Fold:
Amino acid sequence: EKNEEKNEILIYVLKNLLKLWHPFIPFVTEVINCQLQVKNQKIETLDCKAKNLLMIQKWPSQLSIINYELQSKEKIVYKNNFEIIKNIIAAIRNARSENKIEPAQKIRAIIYAGKNKKMVESHEILIKSLRTNISELEIKSKGEKISQAIYIAVGEIEVYLLGGIDKEKEKIRIKKEIENLEKIMKVTKNKLVNQEFISKAPKQIVENEKEKLKIWQTELKKLEVIIRN
Structure:
C-alpha cells in the first residue's frame, strides 16, 4: 500500500513536470505523457485521446500542486507528518539566521517531540541534512527546560539549539515571536466571536481555526516560561 501511495504521488509530480517541460520539448513530453495513459502498446503505435494531449492541458499553478488532494487516511497522515518535519527544519534555519549563527558553525539540537517521537526519529537524517548544520540530534518524548539554549516551539514540539546562543539576541527573538503569536491569535479570536463568520463558514474551517488557536496558545505559554527564566 505504501509503495502504491508513493507511486501515485510520483506520477502526479511527473505529470505536472511534463506540463512545465512541454513548451521546451513538446514531442518528447507528449510521448511520455501518452505512455502514462496507455499500457501494452509500442511507442510507434501509441494512440492517445486528443483530450489528454499536453498541448491543451491547463498550466499547473503553484496552488494546484500544493493542494494535491490526498484521499486515504494514510495519505493524510503522511501529508501532516511532512508538514511537521518541514516546519521543524524551517524553524531551525530561521533561528540560526535570527541569532546570526555562521552557516558553517555546527550546533547540537534536542527535540522533545511528544507523541510524534517515532515519526520525528524516522526523519532524523532529513532534519540534520537540509542546511540546518546540526552535528548531533537527540530526540525525546519530553524533558526539562534547557537553559543556555535557543528555544523554538513548533506546535506542541519543543526544539532546543545548543552551541550558538547569544542571550540578549535570544530574548529579543522570543519577545518578537510572542508579539507575532499574539497578533495572529487576536485575528483568529475575532473570527471565532464573529457570528457572521461562524454561521457562513463551513464547519471544518471553523474547527481548523479553533485547533490553530489551541496550538498557538500552547506555543505562547512555552515562550512565556522561557522569557521569564
